[in-house]
Design brief:
The complex is a heterodimer of chains A (368) and B (242). With 368 residues, chain A is α+β, with helices and mostly antiparallel strands. Chain A is 15% helix and 32% strand. The longest helix of chain A is centred in the last third of the chain and has 22 residues. Classes of the chains: A alpha+beta (368), B alpha+beta (242).
């Protein structure tokens, strides 16, 4: 079984749960920007939650499957179509040899995830299949996917017994200002009281520089007591650095492992998916919580995923009457051209979007 | 000796800070704490990131809560004077100071008002300490404890310098593992790889060890480079004498 990349989208990469154990050598964990959506996708195809899948950014890929498999899509809704028919998210989708899955522009959020039963087979580097795009290793040759790439898929542990129970309510990515809960520190004592007030009381906007390494935010400047330099120390995913500009930078999956700027606070692990689904122009604010509260929230998140895993495996878990259920796809060759032609869009427009200073030309299509 | 300060760094890590200075003495406490934790890890312990004066201790909050991690750290800190560390290792880094690779050697000699031979002698005569790794995988932050040179960074950083470059300023000398922008002067080049993903442990160096630069000719450089490419070259190492 393999997946052929017909079109890679803007930025699609292989990710797994991340690379742990090598941070003392300068290797950051990488892994998915929205771990919640990523793990949900894996659970919906019967995989371990951290199995290797695909992360797609802003505009998704077009992929062809060479053999039957089960896939699931979560995270940002990119209007996926399977052989030209709307595919749906947050449910197991059986695909046949020759089927084509095409994703478009993210209607909300920033990143979509595709899990495939068995998981994507690339050679692990330091125990992980996650791509480290910034340092060119891991995943498929250490890079984002390109046209004509072929991704091998490992055989699934076993066939899913009752595909129709592998679904969950699609999750909405919040619109408007998102509240990121934070634990203050470790260097909050390097900021003035005014500085702390500004940080916790202002709304910040995601700037053009947002990627897997970090999110630069724009808004009110945060005042330091003296300066922004520290003797370099360790950084975690979610660390909020405030350099001399006074503007915060949220460090994400491909962040550095050490840094020499003051860190005013850290985004709690349970809220990291919220920042991972932000793109330029989105707004965030920060709210202080305690470590105990953050750890309780993380436990709740783990329990939610575990109960989802149990629920989808339960033969009695069936959709309500009238709900859409996963169905085998229409035969690829016959369905594709007809469906494509029959499809009507409310509008189609070409736009230029910017990610981290690079411009991309994309076509947005919205269904009627 | 002042008390260590323990601060949360989010919900999955604690930062243990020692005195706010860059010195071998302060760093030895970072290393001792890391060593005791590695020797007897607590359940749920994750990555340990040592830096100049602090140790970041990652943990899995689904396995252990912050208060317990704090207790674990405090108990280790209470027994730090009983820790006997293994001897530090010195790794030999072969360096070619030939003009072709040492593109700034002439400039450095002018800045220091010394001959090129003298600059090479100074750079290769005593060991540099590896405080930590970071910036890029395998990239060492090294220093020595007298000031071998007086010059700082260049005014205009280069947009790209090749991997293997040995770059210097003041008491610092780094090995560049991957092509990158850099504002330091290039004193030479090593054929060995600070990070080689083909290997199970890709990293040449570890925080808390030393490196020694040994001058090699252009011919030796090319010969070692071939062995490195074939995966057969092993750097010489020895125990650091006190």
């Amino acid at each position: 079984m393999a997946i052929v990349v017909l079109s890679p989208g803007i930025l699609t990469s292989v990710q797994d749960g991340g690379r742990n154990g090598y941070q003392q050598f300068g290797v950051s964990p990488s892994g998915p920007m929205d771990a919640h959506a990523f793990r949900t996708a894996n659970i919906l195809v019967g995989n371990e939650p951290d199995e290797a899948g695909l992360e797609m950014t802003v505009m998704g890929a077009e992929l062809k499957f060479t053999a039957p498999a089960v896939i699931a899509l979560t995270g940002a809704d990119m209007g996926a179509m399977l052989n030209g028919v709307k595919a749906g998210t947050y449910k197991a989708l059986p695909v046949q040899a020759g089927d084509v899955l095409k994703l478009g522009f993210a209607m909300s959020g920033c990143r979509a995830y595709l899990a495939v039963s068995g998981g994507i087979d690339v050679k692990p580097v330091m125990g992980s299949r996650a791509t480290m795009l910034g340092k060119n290793f891991g995943g498929l040759d250490g890079r984002k996917l390109q046209k004509d790439d072929v991704l091998e898929v490992r055989p699934a542990a076993g066939e899913l017994q009752h595909l129709e129970t592998y679904f969950t309510e699609p999750e909405q990515i919040p619109a408007g200002t998102r509240t990121l809960r934070v634990i203050m520190g470790p260097q909050e004592d390097r900021f003035t009281e005014d500085g702390i007030r500004t940080f916790l009381g202002s709304e910040y906007t995601v700037g053009q520089d947002f990627d897997r390494q970090g999110y630069r935010l724009e808004g009110a400047k945060i005042e330091h007591k003296t300066d922004s330099n520290i003797i370099s120390d360790g950084v975690v995913t979610g660390s909020i650095q405030v350099p001399g500009t006074g503007l915060p930078i949220v460090m994400t999956a491909e962040r550095a492992t050490v840094g020499g700027y003051t860190k005013i606070a850290t985004v709690i692990t349970a809220d990291l998916p919220l920042i991972g689904q932000c793109k330029a122009g989105d707004r965030v604010r920060f709210k202080e919580v305690t470590v105990e509260q953050a750890q309780d929230l993380l436990k709740e998140e783990a329990d939610r995923l575990e109960s989802l895993r149990k629920r989808v495996q339960d033969p009695a878990h069936l959709p309500e009457e009238g709900e859409e259920v996963p169905q085998a796809s229409a035969p690829a060759a016959a369905a594709a051209p007809a469906a494509e032609a029959a499809h009507e869009f409310e509008y189609t427009k070409d736009v230029t979007i910017c990610i981290n200073g690079k411009a991309y030309e994309v076509t947005i299509q919205k269904w009627k | 000796m002042s008390e260590a300060v323990i601060r949360p760094a989010g919900d999955s890590a604690l930062l243990v800070e020692f005195e706010n200075e860059i010195s071998l003495e302060v760093n030895s406490r970072v290393r001792a704490l890391k060593y005791t934790l590695e020797q007897s890890p607590f359940d749920g312990m994750g990555d340990l990131i040592p830096t100049y004066r602090a140790l970041l201790i990652c943990y899995d909050p689904l396995k252990i809560r912050m208060k317990k991690v704090r207790d674990e750290v405090l108990s280790r800190l209470g027994h730090m004077d009983q820790v006997s560390m293994p001897p530090a290792i010195v790794t030999e880094i072969p360096v070619c100071y030939d003009k072709e690779y040492a593109v700034d050697l002439e400039h450095i000699a002018q800045l220091e008002n010394k001959s090129e031979e003298e600059v090479i002698r100074i750079h290769s005569q005593s060991d540099y300490f590896v405080y930590m790794l970071g910036f890029a995988p395998g990239h060492p932050y090294t220093a020595r404890f007298e000031n071998p040179f007086s010059f700082k960074r260049m005014e205009n950083p280069r947009l790209k310098i090749p991997s293997g470059s040995i770059v210097v300023q003041l008491a610092l000398s780094d090995i560049i593992p991957f092509d990158q922008p850099c504002g330091w002067n290039i004193i030479g080049s090593t054929p060995v790889l600070a990070c080689d993903y083909r290997k199970e442990n890709p990293f040449l160096l570890k925080a808390g060890q030393w490196i020694h630069h040994t001058p090699v000719s252009r011919e030796e450089y090319l010969d070692i480079k071939k062995q490195v490419e074939a995966g057969t070259y092993v750097c010489r190492t020895w125990e650091k004498e006190d």
